[in-house]
Amino acid sequence: MSHNIIEIIDLKKEFKLKGKDKITALDNINFTIQKGEVFGLLGPNGAGKTTLISILTTLIQPTRGYALIDGIDIVKYPKLIKPKIALMLDFKLLYNRITAYANLKFICKMYRISNYKDKINQIVKDFGMEKWLNQYVSNFSMGMKMKLALCRTLLLERDILLLDEPTLSLDVQSKSFIIDKLKDSNSTIFLTSHDMSVVERLCDRIAFINHGNILKIGDKDSIKKLAQTEIILKLKILEKKNELKSDLNQLNYILNISEEPEGLVLSLKDRSYYRDLFLILSNYEILRFNEIEQSLEDLFIKFANQ
Question: Class of 229-304 per CATH?
């Protein structure tokens, strides 16, 4: 039976800027992550994602509240936490003036990774980077740097991976490659992102954060159901389209109507009005009727504006 490997309780972080009032980066954050879970934290720039990662990796301390990793208080016992976690801050932790091999050897030596030569050779083979191993990182593309940063993180063989925007600014091919590699990992993964395609493909559960507050949390399907109050409907109608539009504009449960070449797109207040709507539509020749499911990107924009 799985257990909570990360627990965040009433976490708050404030920053005091010179000559300014305090800024609340995180405000009363509460959630848990189960062992083996891939958990995504979504939010716009400045929402508090990196601050939370920094607290969990013991880089900074919370103003109030606490967090447990595998049952251990991260503030009281940071030295016990570090052997359990690996951090990826895109490619900021790479050294550009040395080779890829030197970067990987350095991290292995620092963390006393046994048999590091064999492990380096194996992971660069898995990532298809053999011919780049002895090249200077300064010559790498952004995609290659991100692959190397992930190699560096996975070499530590940690139970928990904390990944801050692991696919930032990558092309589609490089992004897909990194997602597939993370899927193959047996570690618990906590990642931050504002990339909807990453979350759709990778995460078991997600949370939306904005202005330091968790807005929604759950699996993808439950969040969509929870957040989707209005219903988007697409109608195909070729005759009497303007007449139908005029009739629908008189209804207070139709929130918005837009035209398309072959029909109309409606925003229905909620499903309880379906019966009334069908009575209106029965007077017209509707060729097709579809309900459009909101994507996570739609929900992200909606939550970000709250």
Answer: alpha beta
